[in-house]
User: Fold this.
Amino acid sequence: MSRESLTASLTGHRWSQRTPPPEQLAWARQQGLSPVAASVLAPRVPPSASPRWLRPDLDVVLSHSPFAMRHMDRTIDRLRKALRDRERIFVVTDYDVDGTTSSLILQHALHLAGGGAADLAWHIPDRFTEGYGFRPVAAEKAKELGCGLVITADIGVRDHDAITRARELGLDVLVCDHHLPAEASVPEHATAVLCPPQSGCAYPNPALAACGVSLKVAQALLEKHPKRERLLRSFLKLAAIGTVADVVDLATEENRAIVALGLQELSSGRHSPGLTALLEVAGVLGRPLRADDLGFRVGPRINAAGRLEQANAVVELLNERNPSRARDRARALDRVNTDRKALQQRLEAAVLKQVGSPPPPFVVVWGDEDLESDSPWHRGIAGIVASRVREQVHRPVAVITVTGDQARGSIRSTPGIHAVHALDSTAELLYRYGGHPAAAGFSLESRHLPAFAQRLQSWAAAQGAGNTLPEHVFDCDVSPRALSRDLFRELSELGPFGKGNPSPLLRLSDVSITNISPMSDGKHVRFQVGGHKAVWWRGGQWLSELRNAHSVDLLVELEENTWKGRTSLQLKVEDVRLG
Assistant:
């Protein structure tokens, strides 16, 4: 990746360009792509990529044998024994999109493998009474319900105490997870642990989300089912939603296939009443879906239940077979999401009021949570607000809610600042913590908050946080004349886009802009570039600079805009640098 000018753009970013290795660029050109599309594709493909990376099909998923995953044979043997013996199985998963889609995949696969006679109970922890993870209270609930086997998804691999408690109660536990920190050990008392990153696992795709691991369980469990391929295609709808929402790597061949095929099925296939109702309230039913639709329309509605209320509502909706009841459940979920957005805006404003200028190396803010009052400080939205504030201040951010003498928080970090390593520097102050480089959660006594904030800020300063400009990485230079609907369609075929395969970002250098005008309440701005419409969301604050500029450099994404039945090419502006 080449480093370009350190001159800051209007948003305060420096720009750099991806520079692919020559052999990957040569491979991309061999795929029959235009020079622009080949330049975009080349840095994204792994060195061992095959043409199937560009054109994924179901064989990509099927060719990754689930039995290459460590403990898969043990898992399937134990599940089949439970089904044969009519043993009650307890499915317990996380309350986010990855967890709820995993629950549904496992439930349906077990019912199908059991000939419709599987004895299942399912449980999703309550964020407010149980907290995150597989907890001892859930193991005790499984015992009370007469279960002999527990299978977790998107939780469990770090929940040693709960699995030990389950073993004490005479329960076997199968873990399906992907949250294993480097060098961490899996629970020794689990009957089997499916977690691709664990030591000794030879599975070729360590970047599966938990719903992807659950999909591989379904693939193995239904190995001899006469309708296996059709069933797996149906499961791919759920796996695609969970994979996109959990922001796992879409540069891997299998994850790309899961999302691409799932989008095809969601766009064209028949759906259950519950899924139909969910897609309808999300405004995406009956049209081709993109990964953005899953990440920004479908996923947030699923997440809203677990953030503000209980994620059980999602499973109940997607298991609903009555169309009328499904519509009612979906509308209720949509109302929760509307409440979530309003609360999120209020908390974001409250957090930004606490942030100084310039921001400290690590932004740490907190407020009192009172679910019975009008307080915006709500633990269910702390993580998403931390993410939004991070985008504005370009620093790692911790948002913490305080209830009496207890505090719980979420971190969203920036490149180069490892969220879990940051928490390691405060470990003796914390009850629990965990996560991955970009995001983490933690809990502590509220009296320790000032010391906690000071330690995080000192640690981040020592790591150099805030000493460099944030960065936009673009793919290649193009001229306005090269922008066309054909190029848009060609670039679209490189999707689905997400982590590891971001939407193509193009640079237009030394161009003139005309017809500059504000939009809406002045937050956004539109203009013309060489005959193309351009929109800069949240760019209204730089309206005067744009009007006074003789020429500019632009970073843009190509998109289609449909208005009154007419579709046209549009440039979505990411950033502007004055000429």
